[in-house]
């Protein structure tokens, strides 16, 4: 078990803009793509991914050898309303599974040769006995947001900082790509409530089964979320308030991590529905981070398609995934690495002595 360290940060550190990815390097990388031995655009979005990574890394030939995966875990008071098919004990039980190597994200991290850390943001069961868990509990769980704000202002700031601290650890290792994952029974309810208000979407249109609710359970979940939105409607004035009142410790930590990674010049792959909720908050808190975020996949969670359309982003793949943990984000890492390899290693027309396209072609 590792304890997090207390770090003195400006309370509004998350609003500091990220540097704009290099315009000149992006132009040079685009020119390189145009000189490779293929018709322009033949590699589709892989070309644009490589170009964007080059601009982020400020080098014409980008690299993604160092990948860091952080899974944030936290419990939710809203579970008291019967919105989950699983008990809260699973949040800590899965943390044990993560560090012992038995979870999907554990397997993916090994296959990618990525570093994996598990951060406890606050759970009913105490995982401090688990060697390998980064222990930073804010409280045993968030408050039940059907009746009161999920977090105090101080707790919200603390959760953001857990994400910042994770990114600092990754940056110290020279990481080029950051993936955030989540684990928390009840967190699809929090993410749905957050997204409904943040993006002005109908609760019924984006509420899904989460870990496996039946139709009756989904309808109950809709009613709980709508009741909470109605109760807090006058307080949900901006992204920060929405995140604090309706969100979760682990969701807020992800928001902080996405912002901090962009501020450090590190590319991010966003996972599915819950991570997208965290990213949606991050984008409203700090719009400058948008060029650093790659959205991995369209989740099978019913509302995710509507959410990504509202955000104006295009996921890289659609594999009908709904596991969480950062698993969907990890699965696209090989595609991004291949995009870089093609960009870096293909010969140009001049190098290969291949005739270029005719002017009238």
Keywords:
single chain, 361 residues, 7 strands, seven-stranded parallel beta sheet, alpha/beta, Rossmann fold, globular
Characterize the structure shown:
With 361 residues, this protein is of the alpha/beta class. It has a single domain, classed as Nicotinate-nucleotide-dimethylbenzimidazole phosphoribosyltransferase (CobT), large domain (Rossmann fold). It is built from 15 helices and 7 strands.
CATH 2nd-level architecture: 3-Layer(aba) Sandwich
Number of helices: 15
The succession of helices and strands, N to C, reads EHHEHHEEHEHHHHHEHEHHHH
The main sheet comes to: 7 strands, parallel
Could you give a short description of this structure?
The chain is α/β, with parallel strands linked by helices and 361 residues long. It contains 15 helices and seven strands.
Write the layout of secondary structure elements.
Blueprint: E1 2-3, H1 23-35, H2 45-57, E2 67-74, H3 89-100, H4 104-112, E3 115-122, E4 133-135, H5 153-172, E5 177-183, H6 187-198, H7 203-206, H8 215-232, H9 239-246, H10 249-263, E6 267-270, H11 273-285, E7 293-295, H12 304-311, H13 327-331, H14 333-345, H15 349-352
Parallel strand pairs: 1-4, 2-3, 2-5, 3-4, 5-6, 6-7
Helix pairs in contact: 1-2, 2-14, 5-10, 6-8, 6-9, 6-11, 9-11, 10-11
């Amino acid at each position: 078990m590792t304890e997090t360290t207390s770090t003195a940060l400006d309370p509004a550190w998350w609003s500091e803009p990220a540097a704009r990815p290099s315009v000149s390097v992006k132009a040079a990388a685009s020119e390189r793509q145009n000189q490779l031995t293929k018709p322009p655009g033949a590699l589709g979005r892989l070309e644009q991914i490589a170009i964007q990574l080059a601009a982020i890394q400020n080098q014409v030939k980008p690299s993604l050898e160092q990948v860091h995966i952080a899974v944030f875990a936290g419990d939710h008071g809203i579970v008291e309303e019967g919105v989950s098919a699983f008990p809260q004990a699973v949040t800590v039980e899965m943390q044990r599974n993560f560090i012992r190597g038995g979870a999907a994200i554990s397997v993916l991290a090994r296959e990618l040769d990525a570093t994996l850390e598990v951060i406890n943001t606050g759970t009913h069961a105490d995982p401090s006995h688990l060697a390998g868990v980064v222990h930073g509990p804010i409280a045993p769980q968030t408050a039940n947001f059907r009746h009161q704000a999920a977090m105090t202002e101080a707790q919200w700031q603390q959760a953001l900082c857990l994400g910042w601290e994770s990114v600092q650890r990754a940056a110290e290792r020279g990481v080029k790509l950051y993936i955030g994952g989540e684990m928390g029974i009840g967190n699809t309810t929090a993410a749905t409530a957050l997204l409904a208000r943040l993006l002005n979407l109908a609760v019924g249109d984006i509420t899904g089964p989460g870990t496996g609710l039946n139709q009756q359970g989904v309808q109950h979940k809709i009613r709980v979320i709508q009741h909470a939105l109605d109760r807090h409607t006058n307080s949900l004035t901006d992204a920060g308030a929405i995140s604090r009142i309706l969100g979760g410790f682990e969701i807020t930590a992800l928001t902080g991590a996405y912002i901090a990674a962009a501020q450090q010049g590190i590319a991010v792959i966003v996972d599915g529905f819950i991570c997208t909720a965290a990213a949606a908050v991050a984008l409203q808190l700090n719009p400058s981070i948008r060029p650093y975020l790659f959205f991995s996949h369209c989740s099978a969670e019913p509302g995710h398609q509507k959410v990504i359309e509202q955000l104006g982003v295009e996921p890289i793949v659609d594999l009908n995934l709904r596991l969480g943990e950062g698993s969907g984000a990890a699965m696209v890492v090989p595609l991004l690495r291949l995009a870089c390899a093609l960009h870096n290693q293909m010969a140009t027309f001049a190098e290969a002595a291949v005739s270029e396209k005719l002017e009238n072609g």
